[in-house]
Task: structure prediction
Amino acid sequence: MKNSKKGFTLVEVLASVIILVLIAGSIVFAISFSQRVVQENSVSDAYAAEVQAAADVIMTYVNGGLTSGYDIESQSQISGQSVYRNAEAGFNPSIDDIQFTLIPESSGSGLYEITVRLYYGPEHSRESVEMVCFAHPNW
Result:
C-alpha cells in the first residue's frame, strides 16, 4: 500500500517558525534603531535652531553698533542673568548657556566674525552645536 499522507514534518514547521521569528526580530530592531536616530536628531536640531536664533540676535546687536562681546552679554540679560555668554577667553564645555565670540576681521572690512556655540548632554559625553556668521556694524 502506498502512504498518501500529505503535510509538513515537525522539523519543517519548527524551521519555518524560527525563520519567521528571526525576520520579526530584525524588523523590530530596525524600527527601534531608526526611532532612536530620529529622536537624537530632533534633539540636535532643536539645539541648532536655538543657536541659529542666538546668532540672529547677536548679528542684530552688531548691526546696531554693539561691537563688544561684554556689551552684548550685558544687553542680553533677562532678570539679571545673561542669555548669551561672551566666550572671549575660550568656550567652556561645562556651561549649558549659549556662548559666543566676536572677532573683528583683520582685513579692515569692518566685518565681525561671530561664532555661537551651545554645549548639551551629560558631563561625560558633551556635544555641541556651533554656527559661524558675519555681521557689520551700522548696516
